Each structure stands twice: as C-alpha cells, then as structure tokens.
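The records we work with from here on pair a chain with its fold. These numbers are not coordinates but entries in a learned vocabulary of local backbone shapes. To see the layout at work, look at the sequence and tokens printed below:
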Amino acid sequence: MSAAPTLYILYNADASVMGKLSYGYKKLTNKDKDKPTCAACDITHGGLSLDETPQWKAAKKDLTESGAVKDVKQFHRDELDQETKGFVQSQGLQFPMVLAQNEGSGLRSVMSSEELATFKGDPQTFVTKIREQLGGNQST
C-alpha cells in the first residue's frame, strides 16, 4: 500500500484583509444556499469565522492520526505556489476544491466545489467522503 497523501484544501477566498471583507460580503449576500460562496470555508470555519471550528479540528486530527492522510494543508487563492496555481489552471478547476498529492507524485483533484457544497458545512460528512475518495477506511 502506498503512503498516505497530503490533502490540500483550497478556499474560494483570499487571505488579505480586502479578500476577507470581499468574502464576507459575498457570503452575506449569497441567496443560493445550494451554491455557497466557499463550501470549504463552511466545512473548516463554519462560514464567516476566522477560526477553525472544534468539529473541523477534530475531523482533521482524525484524518491524520488514522493514517488516511499524511497532512492537511489549507490555502487561500492568493497563497498558492506556482505548481499548485499551474495545476488548477491547466485542469480548469474552480475554487473551492480539494487536491491530494502522494510523495513523488503530482497533484490530483479529489473533490470539486460542487461536491464540497453537498456537505452543507459538515466536517464529518466531508471526512467520510474523503476516506472513500482516497480508498482508505481507517478510523480512530
């Protein structure tokens, strides 16, 4: 069995102050509950909070301690390195999304913005689906 991948959660928001304000405005004015502004933000931060939710912290810990993933890294659009930006652009992917990368391998998409939206901000449902996507059913 290959080593567990690193999981990359890419937000549909920028890390700058203006980016956070812009995201907050879009979040508050979004009328389409089936297409959230940033479904990844909803899962990890509960929407508008700047802090991760306790539920997400527990889910992330479960993913890493169980060996389902090596690490979970979270980035805003304006924090991406050139390799990740290039991959996202070359694949025509839309933010937010989840990527994975095994050591010595390239990035791969494991969850789209549409899939993330189906979890309605629930970290545990996200973890269950990630385990299925990655082919591992380890749990603590």
